[in-house]
Amino acid sequence: MSERFEWPTLVLLAGCYLLWALGTTWLAVVWLPLAMVAVVVATALHSSLNHEMLHGHPFRSRFWNGALVFPALAVTVPYMRFKDTHLAHHRDSRLTDPYDDPESNYLDPAVWARLSVPMRVLLKVNNTLAGRLFFGPMIGTVAFLLPDLRALARGNRRVWLAWLLHVPAVAVVLWWMVSAAAMPIWAWVICVYAALGILKIRTFLEHQAHEEAEGRTVIIEDRGPLALIFLNNNLHVVHHLHAAVPWYRLPKVYRANRDRYLARNRGYLYESYSEIFRRYFWRAKDPVPHPLFPPRG
Predict the structure, then answer these.
(1) Closest by alpha carbon to 196, among 123, 282, 138, 272?
(2) Looking at the 3D structure of the chain, how many domains does it have?
(3) CA distances (Å), origin 16, targets 11, 47, 154, 206, 244
(4) Per the domain annotation, does 263 fall within a domain?
(5) Rg from Cα positions in the chain
(6) Which residues are registered as beta bridge partners of 107?
(7) 297 DSSP assignment
């Protein structure tokens, strides 16, 4: 029964909403900095729970999974658009492709060559972990919105539906912030941006350019607070191979077959997020133009 209903996910989701509600109300009166930390953590965790729901957890019903995370705590991305683009990202043979992988951080070298010098500098900074934390949410939001605006202009019905459903999802959050919350709006906006920045830590190097598709997905053997906020998605190759496995079972699955997973991903491994901070906070791990991308046309 616990496997079918996935009670750890439901308990964590309830705790996430409770932490967010306390952060925006009571804690904001007691001590605003602590309240902001609570809201940042809850917002980032809610985004990770969105990811869990779109992969078919905790229920078999897609409707109820989506309904559980209906309030758009992170504001910027409609659930349906996240679902569509992320499931497209799970085509492992296309991972890191600047065109076919919606979550790729690489650009076509031909596109890179046409960019202005200031834009190149900004994107190079964004390829350091510090840059990804501070500029990544802004750059990622713009990169996400521009294709959707073009799709809306073309009359894409599914994209229109996703954004129309997103309006009440954002409205309920804004209603709470205006009518029930004690946290100032300016502080909440900072919290949302900071939460998106934390999520950029996870995506910073979870995929790399590699000639073999199996060597593109990372394992980060972290068991700290970031691993919990990311719902063990740091064991990323395990998730890509077993997307139907709930988040709380991923560590056990990995430990049972560690050598197999590391052989499969060609040893793309880090021991912890602290190692990644030490190595890449001020230094880029990858170039912006895809180093293995073939010329087109």
Answers:
(1) 138
(2) 1
(3) 9, 10, 37, 24, 22
(4) no
(5) 19
(6) 289
(7) -
Predicted pLDDT of residue 297: 47
Helices and strands, number each (H, E), in the chain? 17, 2
Confidence (pLDDT) at 295: 65
Q: What is the pLDDT of residue 294?
A: 77
pLDDT at 91: 92
**SS3 of 206-220:** CECCCCCHHHHECEE
In a domain, 266, yes or no: no
Query: Is the CB of residue 81 less than 8 Å from the CB of residue 102?
Result: no
Average confidence (pLDDT) over 46-72: 96
Using CA atoms, how far apart are residues 270 and 59, in angstroms rounded to an integer? Answer: 32
Which amino acid, one-letter code, is at 232? N
| Range(s) of the domain holding residue 97 | 2-201
The reply to whether 183 falls in a domain is yes
Closest CA to 270 of 231, 227, 240, 228: 227
- Pair of tokens at residue 116: 């202005």
- The model's pLDDT over 82-111, given as tens digits with 9 standing for 90+, comes to 999 999 999 999 999 999 999 999 999 999
The DSSP code for 17 is: H
User: What one-letter code names the amino acid at 171?
Assistant: A
| CA dihedral sign, ordered 21, 70, 245, 237 | negative
CA atoms within 13 A on the CB side of 98: 17
Q: Nearest 5 degrees, angle CA 25-CA 176-CA 8? A: 75
218 occurs within a structural domain: no
Distance, in Å, from the CA atom of 35 to the CA atom of 89, rounded to the nearest integer, reads: 34
Sequence-separated (6 or more) residues with CB below 8 Å from residue 17: 42, 46
Tokens representing 233? Answer: 């998605």
Predicted TM-score (pTM) of the model is: 0.95
